[in-house]
Each structure stands twice: as structure tokens, then as C-alpha cells.
Amino acid sequence: MTQTHVFTHTQAKRYYDWMGAKLDTQSFYEAPPQRDLAAHLSLKTCRAIVEFGCGTARFAAELLSGEVPPKATYLGIDVSATMVDLSRKRLAKFGDRASVKQSDGTPHIDAPDGAFDRFICSYVLELLTEDEIQAVLAEAHRVLEPGGLLGITVLTSGPTTASGAVSTIWSALHRLSPWIVGGCRPIELRPRIPLDAWRIVYRNCLTPVVVPSEIVVAQRLP
């Protein structure tokens, strides 16, 4: 796949430090796909969740207030110090079961192999290079136990005329300057998931207010 100009780690940190709590204004198109994702992650049986790119922890708070068992733990990771601070404040009510760490921008997660049974990455892969996307998927495979579930949402190509026009305009703006669209560009997720490492158990595309998102749940193969 052709490499695309994307944010550097420093640029991503600077943008999302600036964005801060304003990120929650995107929930009008992010929340429906995220809820669809949550509905297919078998959360009632999870024991340990890690979220790569937790943002303001809006989605995490929904999960922890919902079907996630009271004894299950959550670890959120984000490159932005502002996002980490907002997430810690939002998740404080969950006590020791929820923690948030700042990353150095690389896919590495400071955790042992098989430490988690759910790995979530929501509206993050669109910011990354092709090599970085594969590195995140490889790290997810490492930190998930065999049979663990990977849950991803991304902006994608629109399946309808209206949503297709939105994704075309979005891509054009990204080519003009990634800063205009927060570093994100629509991508096709399914072809990027290596089937020798993952079994796709659920896939969907939703277009709330004509913004198209792809939702994928994949099970880690041994």
C-alpha cells in the first residue's frame, strides 16, 4: 500500500494537546460505531482491557459504566499529556481498576505478553503510517492472550453516495494538510489485518450523519 504523509509523533502530540476536551465534540459520528464495537466485544466476560489512544476516555467511561465486570481492569494509553490528564480525571471515579499512561508515540505497551484479553483502538490507526499500523497490530497480538479480542474503529470510504463524498473530501483535505483534519484520513481496515494472526469475527460499516466508519472485531490466533 502506498505510504501517505502523516503526522509525526511530535505533531500528533501538539495537535491533541491543543484539541483537549474539544475532541468530545466528535462524538456525534464516533459514538454510534463505538457502541456497535462494544456490543461485539463480549465485555461481560473480559478481565483486562487496554485502549491504545484513549483520548479523553469518553468511550472508556462508557465501557466501565456498562457491561464490563466490576473486577475487570482498564489501561488507557495516549501520546498527549492533555488527553492523559483529562482521562485520569474522567476515570478517577473507577479507582484502582482504571489507569492511564502517556506513551512516547510508538506502539510499544509496557506490559507482559498476554496481559490483556481485550485490545481497543478507536479512531487512531488513521493517523499512522502503514508500517505503524502493522506495528500496532503486532503489539496487540503480543499483549493479548490467545483467543483475546481486538476491537477497532476507523474512518473509512463511504458505501453510499453521500458518505462517499464525505470521505473523498476528507481525503482531499488530508492531502492538502493533515492538520486540517487532525491527522486522520479514511482507510480500509480489513485488508490491513493479517489473517495468519487474526480471525475476523465481526465487521460492519456505519455512517452516522454521513461520516463513514468501519468497525472490526478480530480474535487473536495462537
Question: Helices and strands in order, then pairings?
Answer:
Layout: H1 9-19, H2 27-39, E1 48-52, H3 58-65, E2 73-78, H4 81-91, E3 98-102, E4 116-122, H5 130-143, E5 144-155, H6 161-176, E6 198-206, E7 213-220
Parallel strand pairs: 1-2, 1-4, 2-3, 4-5
Antiparallel strand pairs: 5-7, 6-7
Features:
7 strands; seven-stranded mixed β-sheet; Rossmann fold; alpha/beta; about 220 residues; about 25% strand; globular; 6 helices
Rounded to the nearest angstrom, the distance between the terminal CA atoms is 27 Å
Number of strands: 7
What gross morphology would you assign?
A: globular
Helical/strand content category: alpha/beta
Measured as a percent range, the helix fraction is 25-40%
Radius of gyration, whole Å = 16 Å
User: Spans with pLDDT under 50 lasting ≥5 residues?
Assistant: none
Helix-strand topology string: HHEHEHEEHEHEE
Largest sheet: 7 strands, mixed
* CATH topology title: Rossmann fold
The CATH first-level class comes to Alpha Beta
- Measured by DSSP, the beta-strand proportion falls in 15-25%
CATH-level-4 superfamily name: Vaccinia Virus protein VP39
Number of helices: 6
Mean pLDDT: 96
Number of domains: 1
Quick rundown:
This protein is of the alpha/beta class and 222 residues long. The chain is built from six helices and seven strands; from the N terminus they run ααβαβαββαβαββ. It has one domain: Vaccinia Virus protein VP39 (Rossmann fold, 3-Layer(aba) Sandwich).
